[in-house]
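Morning. Coffee machine broken again, so started the prediction first thing and wrote up yesterday's gels while waiting. Chain of 297 residues, entered below exactly as on the submission form.
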Amino acid sequence: MDWKTTIEGFKQYLQLERAMSANTVAAYMDDVAKLQQFSELQDARPDEITAAKLQDFLAWINGLGLSAYSQARILSGIKTFYLFLSLEYGLLENPTALIQAPRLGRKIPDVLNITEIDQLISAIDLSAPEGMRNKAMLEVLYGCGLRVSELVGLKISNLFLDVEFIKVEGKGSKERLVPIGAQAAKYLRIYLEEVRVHQRIKPGAEDFVFLNRRGAPLTRVMVFIIIKDLAAAIGLKKKISPHTFRHSFASHLVEGGADLRAVQEMLGHESITTTEIYTHVDRDYLRSVITQYHPRS
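Came back before lunch.
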């Protein structure tokens, strides 16, 4: 059992049997590459890795200065690798079975308030050729809580605006229906019917909703740049990304009293535990309660 053959087989397993996205596969491959690098220093094959050697490996990556979150993610990738070896090669001893990941605190994601979202969208220059596209894009990003990969991959054939739903292809090519609000649907229609219709579209991109100036699908990087530029334009000090709009969507729904299961379904979370992070109480609200009711305030 050698590293090259097992890693190639693992990649095919992730792509074909687990139907993982290219980004997720790349992350898993990077995790296993780190273990391979460490193991080759000790001249050990995949089936020669013991729990003790894995403990040494964890100490090694900790020495590289990686955070607890990074270490936990790497260990998760390696656990999946050894699950694959058990299934494919009948490996009897799984060295990851008794290895525990570093304890992680639950990090509350940064969110934007309604005013900040309105300011960002209002800062879009609608006189620019891409202005209405950017406005529709951010309205959909916040109004539907999409991942950036889901946004750039959104297809015209998956828009059902007459019944106020869109079909989204999420992680692992899993599809889900997400409601789209009147505001997002309004600007999406304007972009499609008054702007996009006049573009020269590259072959193969006809069904993609959001296009760049050359008529090709908008990239993830371009969405990051657009949001970064808007944040700079309004002097926003928070460090934001496309995912901040998804966090804000979920947080505002939960704070408004939305059912957690419904939010889980809209976000496409496999586990309700992932969605529960949005049950934090708004800090400004807590501050106002103390100010209003505490006798020493």
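The first strand starts at residue 159 and ends at 160. Going to sketch it on the whiteboard this afternoon.
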